[in-house]
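One record is kept unedited as follows:
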Amino acid sequence: MKKFTLVLMTVLALSFSLKAQQYVSTEPANRNVILEEFTGRGCGYCTDGHRVANQIMANNPGRVWAINVHAGGYAYTTYPNFNTNASTTILGGFNVSGFPTGVVNRSTPNGLDRGAWTGQTNIQLNQASECNIAGVAMVNPDTRVATINVEVYYTGSSSVDENYLTIAMIQDSILGSQADYGNYNPTQWLNGQYVHMHVLRDVITPTWGEAISPTTQGTLISKTYEYQIPESIGNPNGVEVVLDHIAFLAWVSERYQGTATRPILTACELDKSTITDEPIYPVASGVSQHIAASCSHTQTFSFGLSNIGTEELTSIKFNAQAGEVSTEFEWTGSLPSGDKTLAEFEMVLPFGTFNGLLNIVEANGEPYDYQATFTAECLEWSSVVVEEDVAELKVFVIQDQFGDQITWDIINSDGEVVAQGGPYEHLIGSGSTQPNLQNVQVPANDCYLFRLYDSGNNGICCTYGNGYYYVKEANTNTVIFGGEGNGDFGSEARNLFSVTNSNAASVTTGEPRVLSDHEAMFIATLVGNAAEVGFEYQKLTDPVGYSVAGVLNDNNVFTATVDDLDSNTMYAVRAYAVLADGSVTYGDDIHFHTWVDGVSELENTLKVYPNPANDYLSVEGALTSVEVYNTVGQCLLQKQVNGDTRIDLSDFNNGIYFLRVYNNGEMAVRKFSVNR
């Protein structure tokens, strides 16, 4: 993409200087809290301070923000060096006799022990604030310039005629060393390194704030700052400033001359957005798989779609790749400059875990190039059939010595926690184990995900005791999953299972795979038991319906191939399941379009051999591209060619496959098998 200028940034700065309230509320509110913890990487008890501060923030979301101020003798200058002039100045402004200590809204001249932080925070949260504060930080990723707009509105009057506005930048997710005498904060350890959070990196205003006035009720104060975000901060052994991991905090304080207190009246985290001066600039961020139990090969993903260009975004075309699966999508809508929305897509995945790549290839009808990575997963699931509407389960966790690090939960297909357990007892004696049993009830006819966590990130095994886990169906004593030897799982183990009533089932219609101008493959996923699974289909212009029975392909996935379709025609298909009592349940209607009639010289001259194939497949003909699909319609290979080609099958399992070949708009399909 082309280089960007600061013209737009200047225009934005001018437009936001107008005295019109845009961000801040004018309704009276209580104080929000800044908790500054004086800490250092050499302080072995400071991890307990981090844990306490994290819990206070979790208990008061959107109202309390912790800042780790690294300064003093425990703040080492080896990498990562978090010391800054601002952190040293702030530490020097309070009477600090030990680490960790902290100040809550700078309401005391002395640093408080971590045991007093919660009580002092609650006192501040319950006090009325004289003002409100809000704003936005717009970051240009190419120039690393942040344009920060802040508004302060006085719902009451301050006790002094001049207050001080402070803007600070903090950063999360910095890996580095940390002394830790008692494993006080195990959740922030990752592969032997400590994950440092909400570290003070810089203060954009003067350290103690920029003077603002008047401070009387009804006053609106608007400020704009342009801040050049450094590539790294710290000398020596500086730390990279990663744009995705920074946040901007703002607060208003009073300054009492002759005392050490500088009480903070209220605070906020500024909204953060990204913007450039490029006309068309969509960005995909946070591509993630939905957190829910899904007993299906069809997995749902979402991502944040942001328009950081200057023009309205009306459409994007993108493809998502995970392993050998690649699927194309299109989003349409109206997204003004600076706005963002949530976009979703679905992929049909084989079992396994895959590195995913989302590629935006077109925006507003113009070619575009943007990539974002993600992780995709399709877990194999166990199935249990019960005679009642509720399943009785027994959850066994044979813990290792550190049972206090072990917890588990079960979530359903809506992502709701339906059962949970742990932590357990910390055992005396190296390598000790102890069984723990919990009875659980879950509704039938749903999919569930069992998640077992170890905050020590080393499973429940090995040198700490050979623990393991398993889950049984209580009435039949059938093991659903788990067993001895499965305790070595690191930080998390996950098992997927479905529970169905013997008299109930559900079926899902998958996306049909069009194989030619007259042929298509239908796909369905069954949850539960059924006497028959099949498909009903018809042309949209013709009310006459047809049906075909499905064939079980793999793990309750059914397919059927029909070869009597009309070319260049829109069809609708839905899956059905006939239950044991004779009732029928249906999946959703899915529409698809057959290809234009393509029987031509390509069809007549194409040669594909050997069939069955072993390690390769030869394809002869006037070809421009070839594709290989498996029997559930997943594209396993795409290849541009120029005439004859040879396809390497060494990574393909034994089974049936479909070869699709193209030449100048013509297409032909061949079925072949791999048999070694």
Notes: The domain at 7-274 is CATH 2.60.40.10 (Immunoglobulin-like). Confidence is low (pLDDT under 50) at residues 1-19.
